Amino acid sequence: MQDKQCLLKIRSLYSSFSKIEKKIADYIFLHEIEIIYMSITEFSENCEVSETSIVRFCRKINLKGYQEFKLVLARECVNPQENLHEKIHGDDNIEEIINKITVANIEAIKNTSKILSTAAMEKAINAILAADRIDIYGVGASAFTAGDAKYKFMRIGIKCESFSDPHLQNMSAVNLDSKSVAIGISFSGSTKDTVDSLALAKKAGAFTIAITNYEKSPITKYANAILLTSAEETPLRSGALTSKIAQLQVLDIFYTAVAIKRGDLAFDMLNKTAEAVLPKLY
Q: Which Gene3D superfamilies does the annotation name (predicted)?
């Protein structure tokens, strides 16, 4: 861990803070570790201040915003090994590392299955089945999940596209309508490009689905259906396999349920797509 320069800076500026800024600072002093795992929406609700006030506070201490603030806190307040993996310690041997990571990944799958809303999943499935067009948005590590979603749905004959470029995401979103579905994938629920694209899709009339780890996060404000994952990740460990496994768990359930609903059509397309790529294998 580094010296807690960020917290020291907050203390040094405390007397110059406004009433709201002091409220934010007081909350940080009491919950410095918990904040690392909070979305800005959760922090806002727990601290009883607006998200805008939090962003302004971060800028007042010379940070770009809330995500950078969490990154700095993670550097200063969490052991370096925990930023590689929350369960790992510096003196762990290979066998312990194997066991701890395996247990953490299994926990992510189990906890995701527990938190996943069947009602939200049903809404999402019905929307997919009724849609003429499906566009999927994800950037960074979530772009790979978006690409996997496209691959899976194409295998069962559903026309869809995935976008990781923010400009293409926005252009896609404004071209959607009431017969379209937009899926935004963001572990934090605060990825600006994905949130903005889903907001545009909703404004255009599309049915919107968010796959995220945080029910109270910016992306869920624009989602007709929220499919939650449950994995723990520090900002320095962004894109970790544990969060990816949780996303893929949701996606696999989603895809399988849609395939079963499509019945023979899905099974016929599985055979056709399998035959189509067969010549590509030795």
A: Glucose-6-phosphate isomerase like protein, domain 1, Winged helix-like DNA-binding domain superfamily/Winged helix DNA-binding domain
Between CA 137 and CA 157 the distance in angstroms is 19
Global pTM exceeds 0.70:
yes
Is residue 232 located within the same domain as residue 273?
yes
pLDDT digits (tens, 9 = 90+) for 215-274: 989 999 999 999 999 987 766 555 568 889 999 999 999 999 999 999 999 999 999 999
pLDDT in tens, 74-92: 888 766 555 445 566 667 7
Identify whether 123 is part of a domain: yes
Verify that 194 and 129 share a domain, yes or no: yes
CATH code of the domain containing 61: 1.10.10.10
Helix (H) or strand (E) holding 148: helix 142-155
The answer to whether position 86 is within a domain reads no
DSSP reduced 3-state for 181:
strand
Whether 85 is covered by a domain: the verdict is no
Segments forming the whole domain that contains residue 231: 104-280
| 264-272 contacts at long range (C-beta below 8 A, 24 or more positions apart) | 265/156, 265/157, 266/156, 266/157, 268/157, 269/155, 269/156, 269/157, 270/155, 270/156, 272/157
| Per-residue pLDDT tens over the stretch 81-140 | 554 455 666 677 888 888 888 888 898 999 999 999 999 999 999 999 999 999 999 999
How many structural domains compose the chain? 2
Buried b (16+ CB within 10 A) or exposed e, 258-278: bbeebeeebeebeeeeeeeee
Are 9 and 73 a contacting pair, CB within 8 Å?
no
Domain-embedded: residue 184: yes
Distances (CA, A) of 161 to 73, 105, 148, 244: 37, 29, 11, 20
